[in-house]
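Sanity check. The docking grid for fe (ii) ion depends on where the pocket ends up, so I'm generating a full predicted complex first rather than guessing from homology. Inputs follow.
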Amino acid sequence: MTQSIELEENPARAARFLAENKGIGLVIGREGLASFWLPAPTGGYVTFHHSPSVGTPSNTWCMGVYFVPAGGVIPARCYMRTTGYYSVVAGQAELVLEGKTQILEPGDSLYVERLNEHSFRNSGSGELELLWQTWYTGADVFIEECGIPRKAGEKQPGEIAFTPEQSSRWAEAKDWWAGPLASPNALHGINNSHATRRGEAFVVRREDGSSSWSPGEDMQGFITQKISPFNTAQQQFGIHWQYLHTGMQIPPHLHMRNEEMLFVMDGHGYAQFDDGEKVPIEQGSSVWVGRYVRHTMVAAPDTTMNIQFTITPPSLDVFFTDMGKPRKPGDPQADIFPIDESAFPALKQSWIPYEGQLD
Ligand SMILES: [Fe+2]
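Predicted complex below; grid placement will be based on this.
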């Protein structure tokens, strides 16, 4: 216990003491770490960026991307033990949430807790890229069982022979993580008292959320809080959106208490960890960051970059608000301003600025 008190009071010492417990940093390309062809009515394929089955070091959540051809449908499902977050990266999705149809455009998302039926259809003319995340894991195993392994870059090899079991399982989404479809009142054989324990579900539009201009000369842009303990009942994760102007960066830092995954919604640039190597990133790349891993992400001089990042447990929401200046959608870029030092108590909870140079 003595040691843990010291660690909290002295991050620099903590970094030395906990070197052996340090996590890893990974840049994962558009093709993910594994990929599977999907049965009808979806077609197309799915990639995994993060799950226990692809070896990323966390058993608390999964992340990947659906690539759905025009007209393809991700069948209705209704989670029993899972919370989901879906974000349109490219293309257009027609969401049906508890019978209500809504169109999602790039940057729009669905937050969906247990016992809310939802389905997606690619209602655009091109491919739909739909980022998915689930807490906790298990959906990854279900998808693997329904799909057929796909090699990175492999083009669709004509007719794919799914077994009837794979097709029916995929269409009906029967598994431990997905409950019976339709409203909780229709739960088969389950006491209707469960109906009162249905979770929340709502659409988060691209500009929705509490938004703040970022301080400093190198981080010009803004951060918007999409999901946090302030707008959901869960306390497992936070999801934020960070916009970087051309050439701007998420400054080098590390997290004492969090794991983080950042996904490039658009733009390109590079990511960098402790070893200093500049690893290219582009739309569809993700960056896994374990604890005590110094990291930065930099937008190229010729492009802005939008990054959606997930952090678990959630803890940066207060910091982002305190360090920035309030922003409304459409406001002109704020003048450069220094970080508000009153934010540092919140900062200390999670974020440790890295004082050295990575270059
Ligand atoms: Fe970070």
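Relevant for the grid: The CA atoms of residues 228 and 238 lie 5 Å apart.
Also worth noting: The domain at 33-203 is CATH 2.60.120.10 (Jelly Rolls).
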